[in-house]
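Quick one: structure tokens for this chain, please?
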Amino acid sequence: MRTWPIMIAIWLITSMFGVLHAAEKYYVVKLTDRAKNNKYEVMTPDQLKQLEKQIQIENRAFPKALTICQKEWKMREETKNKSFPASAVSMRQVRKMSEYAEKEKADEKAYSYTARIAEKVAKEAEMLKAQKKDKVAKARIEREERKDAERNAYLNEARLFFEKELQELINPATGTTEAGKEPKAAQKAK
């Protein structure tokens, strides 16, 4: 009979320790955006769950938003002769890289991942700078940079267009978009 209060006390203490211990977890997370760029952040388990839930909702609506974008892209006056660059957008992703009990250690690891990316970009810039010293290569590189700038502007326009369509599909929780209009998906269904 006297063992029950002791067992309950032990259970309460261990469950409280588990709650306290769970609050001390920090994850280093790799986030991949729609342009396939990576960045690293430190998150708590609650933040990670919330982000994963949001990304899961977005990824469910992704194919439908892509289909709508492709149709509307063809109908726009300025882009009617060009197909929608589906490769410009990809599903956002989140990946847990590592877990830490201390935020400082997690921050250090995220910084080291970010530093690696920065080093890689710096090496590429150095190589490009070295190639620009040659006059023939310099003209070719400048031509390629102009083409890349035009292509990037086109792809960014497509990403913004897609993002707008995706948000219209995701946010109609009340049956309307933020502007108070009926969502395009509902309009097209009629």
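The beta strands are 26-32, 38-43, 93-100.
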